[in-house]
Design a protein that fits this description.
Elements lengths: L1 H18 L8 E5 L5 H9 L4 E4 L2 H15 L5 E4 L8 H7 L2 E5 L2 H14 L3 E6 L16 H8 L5 E7 L12 H16 L10 E3 L6 H6 L4 E4 L1 H4 L5
Parallel strand pairs: 1-2, 1-8, 2-3, 3-4, 4-5, 5-6, 6-7
Helix pairs in contact: 4-5
């Protein structure tokens, strides 16, 4: 099942990229493995997929340790995509390859402190509340410039892109303006040299119901869970 699902998603990624005159190779699929057993992650690895997303530090700690001991592949990468509490920042800094949800100076400072202790550099994305929803985490678009200026002083936490979760609509076309706004924001920030210093700017946006629209609007990272792994465990 997982092999078939990965193939189907990959085919849809390719089609969406070609519609937008983009290279499919520029799109990274993060398989969201939260609340999935390690065995399903191992199946995905056996089928050539190596990038996964986790929402909970404690759950990820156990799975990442088991999977890397089982496989030992350097190319296996875990993104943290949930709400990160400061008291979990040290362990997150230690075990993850990318933190996609930096949303405050306080959290960034805490991560930087732990990364310095670990002598580790870590790629991170600034989470943007592109829909300005009260219930959503993320930096308001108008505050990104000031925060990035402060984060540019850090030595170990490297902001390489932006991430968002837009408002939910049953019609994916209604999400398109929000994806477009994030891309336009990234372009504005790049012109001011506040982002893009470490390579092409990453844009993490798009999930199972709207990832094709996200790709058409410039996503470089999409996050897909149940469409790959099936229903989650409770």
């Amino acid at each position: 099942m997982i092999q078939d699902n990965l193939t189907a998603i990959t085919n849809r990624i390719t089609a969406a990229a070609l519609r937008a005159n983009r290279s499919p190779a520029d799109i990274k699929l993060v398989a969201v493995s939260k609340r999935m057993p390690s065995e399903k992650i191992l199946q995905a690895i056996e089928n050539g997929h190596y990038t996964f997303g986790e929402n909970y530090v404690q759950e990820a700690l156990e799975k990442i340790s088991f999977i890397k001991e089982s496989k030992g592949k350097n190319e296996i990468s875990f993104h943290f995509i949930g709400k990160l509490q400061s008291n979990k920042a040290r362990k997150a800094a230690e075990i993850f390859n990318v933190i996609e949800t930096v949303d405050s100076l306080k959290l960034a400072r805490t991560l930087e402190k732990h990364l310095a202790t670990l002598n580790k550099n870590l790629a991170a994305y600034l989470q943007v509340n592109i829909g300005k929803e009260k219930q959503r985490s993320g930096v308001m678009p108008e505050n990104c410039e000031q925060l990035l200026q402060e984060l540019s002083q850090f030595q170990h936490l490297k902001i390489v892109g932006l991430m968002t979760m837009p408002p939910y609509f049953t019609d994916p076309e209604k999400v398109r303006p929000y994806f477009r706004q994030l891309r336009q924001l990234s372009e504005k920030l790049a012109i001011k040299s506040l982002i893009g210093q470490f390579g092409p700017v990453e844009l993490s946006m798009g999930m199972s119901g709207d990832f094709e629209i996200a790709i058409e609007e410039g996503a470089t990272v999409i996050r897909i869970g149940t469409a790959i792994f099936g229903s989650r465990e409770r």
